[in-house]
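Much of our argument rests on the idea that a fold can be written as discrete symbols. This step matters because it turns folding into a mapping between discrete strings. The record that follows shows the chain in one-letter code together with its fold in token form.
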Amino acid sequence: MNYLAHAYLSFNHEPFIIGNMIADFVKGKQLLQYAPAVQQGVRLHRAIDAYTDHHPATARAKAALKPFVGAYSAVFIDIIYDHFLANDPEHFTAASLETFSRQVYSTLAVHHDELPPVFQQVFSYMRQHNWLLHYRERSGIASSFNGIARRAKYLQASGADAFKAFEDHYDTLKDCYVQFFPDLLRYVKSYLEAPGSTAPSF
């Protein structure tokens, strides 16, 4: 899952939002620099990623894109899942997604000095271009794909090639999301209800 899903699966718990959003930029013992609840948010992010990677629906989604983007299929699928979450009426309307995005940005801004330096730069772009909201639009997905293509050293396809594959397999990828996300939601709630969790009860 990408930034929108990780923020959403923090359930408005501020330390989890921070940990979930910065997790990819926290390496090794750097984790111990953060408050215990933020550490739990980082671990939650990693648990979400592991569950996502091993879900059969994700395997099917990767298979649909792999002929076009090779080993980078997982990176594109993370963004695609955010697109479907942003458009899932069980979780967001256009208005509620806009409000949610502002709340996440506000939380991160308050804790800006605690964020890893590289993520501070990412966050600047995220808020400036309103990534969380724009995942809802296909134009936002196209822009994200172009960004991946610019940064991916060994990707043979262009961002436009990847976006065409997304469009061509849209229904299949949406079906993968529909099969996957309710399972992920149940998994995360179970994970957070385990003894020792500092998360709010459901």
